[in-house]
Amino acid sequence: MNDNKILELFNFDRSNNQFQSKSLAHLHTYYLSGEIKSPEDYVEIFDLMRNASEHDIIKIHINSSGGQLFTAIQFMRVMAECQAQIICSVEGACMSAATMIFLSANAFEISEHSVFMFHNYSSIVMGKGGELYDNIMHERKWSEKILKSIYKDFLSAEEINSILANKDIWMDGEEVLKRLKNKQDSINKKVKNSNGRKSRKPKE
Question: How far apart are CA 24 and CA 7, in angstroms?
Answer without folding.
Answer: 14
